[in-house]
Amino acid sequence: MFSEFLQYLFTGITIGATYALIALGFTLIYNASHVINFAQGEFLMIGGMATVSLTAMGVPMLLAIVLAVVLAGLMGIALQRLAIAPAKDANVVTLIIITIGASIFIRGLAQLVWGKKYHVMPNFSSDEPIEIFGAVLNSQSLWVLGVGAVLVAVLVYFFTRTMTGKAILATSMNKDAARLVGIRTQMVLMLAFMVSALLGSIAGIVVAPITFTSYDIGIILGLKGFVAAAIGGLGSGVGAVVGGLALGVVEAMAAGYLSSDYKDAVAFSMILLVLFFMPRGLFGAKVVERV
Amino acid sequence: MAKLSEFRLKGLVFLAVVVFALPLFISNPFHYSLATQIALIAGAVVGLNLLVGFAGQISLGHAGFFGLGAYFSAIMTSHYGWSAIPALIVGAIGVGIIAWVVGRPILRLKGHYLSMATLAVGFIIAIILNNEREMTGGPDGMPVPAFDVFGWELSPFGEYSLFGMDISGDLAWYLFAGVVLLVAVWLAQNLIDSPIGRALRSVHGSEVAASVVGVNTTKYKSLVFVISAVYASVMGALYAHFQGFITPAVAGFEFSILLITMVVLGGMGSTIGVIIGAVVLELLPQVLADFQEFEMVLFGLILMLTMIFMPKGLLPTAANFLAKRRAKSAGGNA
């Protein structure tokens, strides 16, 4: 009984940590530019796919990971420079469609380069699962949780202790005021997209051994990240982490105790329920609208 | 105002000419089938535009209502022996009620939270259709009987005569879909010019200002949500009977995205514009299919570039361009 529960909890927290990282990526870009980036999932796909194909070409694992993350970072910059910046006057829906166009484009490129097949990535360390109170924990899950925790710590440090991080926060609060105190806001936007892409690609790499990877894996992962960010409250870092973990655990419990066919329905009902009672998510800022 | 409605009437006449002139230029069944499909989807997009373009509310789950209409009609006609028209009407009423119940709490949300909630509703509908295998056939889909009116069947494979002329089933379906689209447009334009339409546009302009001058914004937003859902349901039902076979993809996320993309690409708030959006986005994959493995890259690229350089959409940008040129040449003459 308990071991079963623990098993679902492990699965939930692992996938939840991935959702949390994607949600953080959403949050970063949303804070800096108020854009919901529907191409967020593609960064995960690029991270996983590039690592798999580079290692297959004989590049050592660690170097492959670094190269894949750099590639994703460059794509993040390109996305902001070439697609978002030129459309600065566009309204919210138009920007959403632009990022959807970008995600189809990136997916198309990935399909050209890597084909439509599923790719398998080996675990980082041993394939031997760990047993705790009768539940089985995949060693890769520890990697996901560990890397996730480190990234969150780095982000907290970045936003509270570094000038660049504070510049991003300042821009998200008031773009004009930030510009007045000498922050180069265009630079900040680019940086936000880049950091978001780095986060996404790292999440994509550590989770790839568990989920496998293919050119179209970004759609559903990106969507789940958006759900997690909305549950937590768009723009809130804490919300993104809590939302991601909550979504992962609820999904795993629903799959385990109810029905795996309906696990996504449970996740989407959860978001509706949260929004009915808290229209700005769990940790969303109370914004007073100025008219 | 008189000028505005005159402009709208021109749009309707223009559309009618295009719809009825098209059969002079195409003849093969594949083209008719494509044109019928476009007309039916365009009808749903016209309804969605009322919500997005006029009331300024985003829906990323509209295919859910399209799919509900399609499956309700399919299930009632094939499992319960209903005739297509009552199935279509009851389905539309049911979908309207669902939209009303769901819409009240959802439409309090703003911006991205509203997108998220509509997306969630669409997803839940698609998941149910995918999993209730006994009723819907699950992911493999289900066959749908032909559309029948008082015992008379409309099938793409039939032979009919109209005003003494023999016409093929493909052409008959196309003409029927074209007329449905024209009616859909006419109803939408009437709604836009009515007091309800003015209230909706005020909500789009500024919801707070609208409520200050006494517009019951919640009521009007729910109303237009219901209307657009009913549009989707009716078009979905017709689409199901026309195709003869449906899968849960008609309710899926990607189809929802396609519908809203048609609205934005064609030009939010312009009824003729969004129809152009539907035509372009349905024809584009046909054209790009020749590029085989490059299809996806090109589709994404074209979508991105169009929206970057024409953020207002195809028709408004083109109209703007023409107006500027006319102003320029008029200035030159003076």
Chart the SSEs and their pairings.
The complex is a heterodimer of chains A (291) and B (334).
Chain A (H helix, E strand, L loop, with lengths): L1 H32 L6 H17 L4 H24 L7 H23 L15 E3 L2 E3 L1 H23 L1 H11 L1 H6 L4 H27 L5 H16 L4 H22 L4 H15 L14
Antiparallel strand pairs in A: 1-2
Chain B lengths: L1 H20 L7 H26 L8 H17 L4 H23 L4 H21 L1 H4 L5 E2 L3 E3 L2 E3 L4 E4 L2 E4 H25 L1 H11 L1 H6 L4 H27 L1 E2 L6 H14 L4 H18 L6 H15 L4 H20 L1
Antiparallel strand pairs in B: 1-6, 2-3, 4-5
Helix pairs in contact in B: 1-7, 2-7, 2-10, 2-11, 2-12, 3-4, 3-5, 3-10, 4-10, 7-8, 8-10, 11-12
How does this structure look, described?
- The complex is a heterodimer of chains A (291) and B (334).
- Chain A is mainly alpha-helical and 291 residues long.
- Chain A contains 11 helices and 2 strands.
- In chain A, strands 1-2 form a two-stranded antiparallel sheet.
- In chain A, a hairpin with a 2-residue loop joins strand 1 (130-132) and strand 2 (135-137).
- Chain B is mostly helical.
- Chain B has one domain (2-333).
- Chain B has 14 helices and 6 strands.
- In chain B, strands 1-6 form a two-stranded antiparallel ribbon.
- In chain B, helix 1 (2-21) packs antiparallel against helix 7 and helix 11 packs across helix 12 (271-288).
- Chains A and B meet through helix 4, helix 9 and helix 11 of A and helix 5, helix 11 and helix 13 of B.
Overall tally of structural domains of chain A: 1
Shape of chain B: globular
CATH architect. name of chain A? Orthogonal Bundle
The run of helices and strands of chain B is HHHHHHEEEEEHHHHEHHHH
Overall average pLDDT of chain A: 88
- Assembly of the depicted chains: heterodimer
Rounded mean pLDDT score of chain B: 88
Order of helices and strands of chain A: HHHHEEHHHHHHH
Number of domains of chain B: 1
Number of helices, counting only DSSP H or I runs of 4 residues or more of chain B: 14
**How many extended strands of chain A?**
2
Poorly predicted ranges of chain A:
none
Return the CATH class of chain A: Mainly Alpha
Structural class of chain B: mainly alpha
- What is the overall number of helices of chain A? 11
CATH topology of chain A: ABC transporter involved in vitamin B12 uptake, BtuC
Cα-atom Rg of chain B, whole angstroms? 20 Å
Low-confidence stretches of chain B: none
Helix share of residues of chain A?
A: over 70%
Structural class of chain A, by secondary structure, is mainly alpha
Biggest sheet architecture of chain A = 2 strands, antiparallel
